[in-house]
Amino acid sequence: MADIINCFKEHLPSLKLIGKRYIDSDRGANGSFGAKWGEWFQNGWFDQIESLGTLPENGDAYLGVMRCVDETFEYWIGMFFPVSTEAPEGYSSIEIPESDIATCYIYGREDSGELFGLDAHNACMKKVAEQGFTLQKDPWYFERYNCPRFTTPDEHGKVILDYCVTIK
After folding, report:
1. What pLDDT digit, counting tens, does each position of 90-107 carry?
2. pTM: predicted TM-score of the whole model, two decimal places
3. The CATH fold of domain 3-167
4. 3-state per-residue secondary structure call for the chain
5. Do the beta carbons of residue 112 and residue 159 sit within 8 Å?
6. Domain assignments of the chain as residue spans, ordered by start
């Protein structure tokens, strides 16, 4: 199991998430959206939206953003932009209101799968509650794949995934 090595509060301005929206039926055979991430890199989709300019709230990272709406799970891959940014053809967008987030740093091995899934989510939510944070109603959750925290393994072969959730 990965370790939660930090949990802290951050503030996000109103922003726009630009990317592509997926639902449960888009999951791969292993139940993940990993194949969709592969499509993003293979097709150069991040290169296309990075040209729009970014916000510092991206933390030099690509994002996997999740929420449930009317009992439908949504998983977005994309990045945050100023609210006024228009989504290019082939991309979707949604505005996320100004909010505070709780950010957990999950420390572990990417190749083991321990950074992802229900166990990692539950460990983060436990840490968020221990810090005294309360989730927003219908919160947004997002994985922030920061460079170099996530992209450069340490001497133990481990990386840090930022796991965030909107809080009151």
Report:
1. 999 999 999 999 999 999
2. 0.93
3. Multidrug-efflux Transporter 1 Regulator Bmrr; Chain A (3.20.80)
4. CCEEEEEEEEEECCEEEEEEEEEHHHCCCCCCCHHHHHHHHHHCHHHHHHCCCCCHHHCCEEEEEEEEECCEEEEEEEEEECCCCCCCCCCEEEEECCEEEEEEEEEECHHHCCCCHHHHHHHHHHHHHHCCCCECCCCCEEEEEECCCCCCCCCCCCEEEEEEEEEC
5. no
6. 3-167
